[in-house]
Write a structure and sequence with these properties.
Strands 2-1-3-4 form a 4-stranded parallel sheet, with helices on both faces. The chain contains 6 helices and 4 strands. 58% of the residues lie in helices and 10% in strands.
Length: 128
């Protein structure tokens, strides 16, 4: 089942991804499936939560001034996002929320791993 979103929202999401791609900011995701999905979209500098959160926060704070947090949009992902955001900001890391907020507002997605296929399916829809 393809869930279509408005063309304007799709354009905004694609632009946010392009900005992230060009900026080369770190992007924090929960796991390898999320990482693979974002890599299909051309994103690099992806950090997974394969270490304890404090270690991930320290690693990011040492290497980046700004990052995007793309944990899943379910309750566990929201919890992780909240903790990461708070701890990274304490370390002086600015959080880029643009893409996350667009996904929350304009898509039914709950898992980042489905983002690449969701965008692909919606891009096909707008071609008709």
């Amino acid at each position: 089942m393809v869930v279509a979103i408005k063309a304007e929202a799709l354009k905004d999401i694609e632009e946010a991804i392009e900005k992230l791609r060009k900026s080369e900011k770190l992007v924090v995701v929960e796991g390898m499936k999320d990482r693979r999905s974002l890599a299909k979209l051309g994103l690099k500098n992806i950090v997974t939560l394969k270490k304890p959160l404090y270690a991930v926060v320290d690693e990011i704070a040492e290497t980046a001034k700004e990052c995007a947090i793309l944990t899943d949009l379910d309750s566990e992902g929201r919890k992780l996002y909240s903790i990461l955001r708070k701890e990274l900001q304490k370390q002086g890391v600015k959080i880029d929320d643009k893409l996350r907020n667009l996904l929350f507002r304009h898509t039914p997605l709950k898992c980042v791993e489905g983002l690449a296929s969701f965008l692909e399916n919606n891009s096909k829809q707008k071609d008709f």
